[in-house]
Structures are given as structure tokens and as C-alpha cells.
């Protein structure tokens, strides 16, 4: 992956973390290792590219994260950079599947 793509993905995820993952009704932030998600999992959900199984390190981080909370905070600009089918694949592969009908950003899990 090109360095520019990594930087762009990293900056986008930082923007998500800094403001968009705040849970307004619960007075806190989504649980999990956001830095770890960026470091270990970004390559598995980015556009373009084929769907591949994530690493053990990525799955470790996914298992510690509140994926549902993060889904509730995904914006249209983020969805332009990540492939939601890949997000669903990664979470399922890592043992934290999103239920059918779950809304993740504007994407609805089939």
C-alpha cells in the first residue's frame, strides 16, 4: 500500500476518534483500542482491493473494541474510504459479527 494511502486512512481515523466517536447519550467514547484498530486493521477495510482475512493482531483489537458503537458514528466521508462489506467480513471473522439489519454508517448489514 502506498504511504500516501496509509497517511490518508490514518488521518481519517484520527478525525473519527477525535470527534465523531463520542456517544452523545452515554456521556463517553466508544470502548476499544482505536490506535490499535488503525495500526492493525486499516489495511483490511480500505478501498480498493480484495477482501482478505484479517491478521490475528487485528482480531485481538477488534475483540476489545465496541464495534457497534463505532458503526453508529461512521460518516459518509469515512464510508468513501472504507469498504463496508470488508468491515462486516473483518468483524465476523474476528468473532464479533454484526447482526443482519445492523446499520453501520448508512450501510445496512445484509
From TrEMBL:
InterPro entries with a match to the protein in the record: Bifun_inhib/LTP/seed_sf (IPR036312), Bifunc_inhib/LTP/seed_store (IPR016140), NsLTP-like (IPR044741)
Keyword Transferase attributed: no
CDD domains hit by this protein: nsLTP_like (cd04660)
SUPFAM superfamilies reported for this sequence: Bifunctional inhibitor/lipid-transfer protein/seed storage 2S albumin (SSF47699)
Signal peptide: 1-19
Keywords, alphabetical: Signal
Residues covered by the Bifunctional inhibitor/plant lipid transfer protein/seed storage helical domain: 25-104
UniProt name for this protein: Bifunctional inhibitor/plant lipid transfer protein/seed storage helical domain-containing protein
Amino acid at each position: 500500500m502506498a504511504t500516501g494511502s496509509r497517511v490518508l486512512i490514518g488521518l481519517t481515523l484520527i478525525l473519527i476518534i477525535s470527534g465523531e466517536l463520542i456517544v452523545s447519550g452515554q456521556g463517553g467514547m466508544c470502548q476499544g483500542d482505536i490506535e490499535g484498530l488503525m495500526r492493525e486493521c486499516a489495511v483490511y477495510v480500505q478501498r480498493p482491493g480484495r477482501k482478505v482475512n484479517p491478521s490475528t493482531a487485528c482480531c485481538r483489537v477488534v475483540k476489545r473494541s465496541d464495534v457497534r458503537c463505532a458503526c453508529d458514528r461512521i460518516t459518509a466521508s469515512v464510508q468513501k474510504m472504507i469498504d463496508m462489506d470488508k468491515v462486516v467480513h473483518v468483524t465476523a471473522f474476528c468473532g464479533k459479527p454484526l447482526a443482519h439489519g445492523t446499520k453501520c454508517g448508512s450501510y445496512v448489514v445484509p
